[in-house]
Structures are given as structure tokens and as C-alpha cells.
Amino acid sequence: MGRLHRVVRHRQYDSANSDHGSWCGAIVVIVIDTLVVEEWIRGHAEPVGAIRTVHEQPWATVLRVPLADGVAWFKACAPVQAFEPHLTAELFARWPDRVAEVLGYDEERAWLLLADAGRPVGDLGNPPEAWLGALPRYAELQHGEATHAPDHLAHGVPDLRLATLPARYQELLGLELPLERDGIRRLRDFAPRLGELCDELAGYGVPATIQHDDLHHANLYLGGGRLRVLDWGDASIAHPFASLVVTFRFLEERTRLAPGDPWFTRLRDAYLEPWGRDLGDAFALAVRVGSFARAIAYIRQRAALRPEERPLFDTDFSTVLGRAVAQTLGDASS
Fold first, then answer.
1. What is the helix (H) or strand (E) element at residue 265, kind and residue range?
2. What is the CATH number of the domain that holds 143?
3. 334 belongs to a structural domain
């Protein structure tokens, strides 16, 4: 790996600007000296070949590190998800059999080195059977992490707890959204009702905790007989059940399960079992509210992009917004 300098420009997130943070116009310039990176990697692993860039996105860059017994993965996170290395290390310390093995991390530089975790279940067709095994273990992790939520927030994990959502929803509505006029109208008209649903959901008393928010076939890995959840850069502190908004979406879109397929009930029940009580109604409500929270979460990533990078991002964002619009249709007032 030769001596290169990678320059990354991102808009800066100002967490002190308001109760919920906002994006200011300043551009953060990050210079990565790849020789420094390689030296850091060698402090945690022993590469046996060239270290190569395999993934480069506005929010992170990933390098493949060949090892004598396999491969490791180095990730340099942009400011928009600079919390990820510390969060991943904390989760690995407490749940080593459910997340990727952390070989090293640098919180200040937002660097992370992970052992290989196997193959994503998407390579296997995203079978629901894999999720049947993974979801209860993921729920146990969430349940256990609830007491650590304040620490995660203190280390920069975004705050999408129910009490924050009405204000954040207004922030979403103030943007120029990649959505047809009727969809935007429905979202605006739904604002009062969303506040009511958040209050109703809070009444079930399920604690806010870590919520992966990108829990799909590309982030669940199978290796050595274990399923592990990777890539926590979209995570937030939020209602835990909202995690399955993404999981269920891709079981529909990729695995082609029909919306009423019995697998969804089976997976829901498996996921809820570690929570220890009848929470079917809370789950349904959380999925509804979570569809709006998912759209709100996109604000953070989208705001960090340069204008020329947004059209591709908005392809998926428009789908997320459309699924939120669909959740307004159950109310006659909409």
C-alpha cells in the first residue's frame, strides 16, 4: 500500500446547536495517510499481502487486510458515523458471540479493525430461517444494552427516542423531499397523529436502547456456525422494536415474502420472546412509528452528502418515505 493521502470533505454535525443537533455549513476535511493506517493496522494484526480499498462511500471507507489465516477489515468512519468504532467495541466486549470480533479501534480517529465474520446471509438468499435464529439473540442484546443507553448517547450515538420524534419529524417536513406532492401532504397532515402514536407507544414501558436501523441481509453474517450483526453506523438510541422495519422490508423485497406471509408472525414472536411479556400490540405500533423514524434517520446521512451525491441516495430515500406514507393510510383523517 503506497503512500497516499485521501481527502474527505463532509458537512459538520453540530450537536450543541439545539436539543437535537443540526447540520451547519462548515466542511470538515479529513486527511488519511495510508502509511499511518497501515502502521496502525500492524499494531493489531499481521498482514501478509497488499492492503486494498474495497469500499468507499461518503460515510466510510473499508480496506481489506489479508492475514495468514484469513482476512480482516479496516473501516475509517466519516464524522456522520464517527460513533461506530466505540459502539462496536462496547458491544463486542459484552456480546462477543453476536457481533464481529473487534481487533482494534481508535475512537478519536474513528477507525475500526474487525475480524472476518463469514458471509452475509444475502449470499444465501436472505432466508427467513436465518432471522429466526438471529432475532432472539439480537433482542437479548438490545434488552441488555438498555442500561448502557446513556453512555452510548454520550459517545455520539444519535438520539431517536420517542420523545424526540415529533420535533425531528418537523425537521424532516422542512426539507425538500424526493416525494410526490400528495405524499408530502399526507406526511404533513399526519404530524399531530404521529405525536399521539409516540405517546401511546411510550405507555408500554419498553426501554429505549440500541437500535441497529439497518438490520438486513447485508449486515447479518454467518461464519463458524454463528450469526453476527455487523455495520452499526446507522444505529441510534430508539425504540428497540423499530429495528424490524428494515428487516421486514427486505424480506418482502429481496426474499419475496408476501406481506401476510406467516413467516412475519413467526419472526415477530421469536423476536419478542426475550422481552418476556405479551407485546404484540406494542410491536405493531412500534413498526408503524418506526417507519417514520426510519425516514427521520435518513436526514443525518443525507445532510452530510454533497449535492451531486444526493440523487443516488434519494433513490432509496424515496422508497423509505413512500413506506412512511403508507403508514398514514390507516387513519381516516389522512
1. helix 262-272
2. 3.90.1200.10
3. no
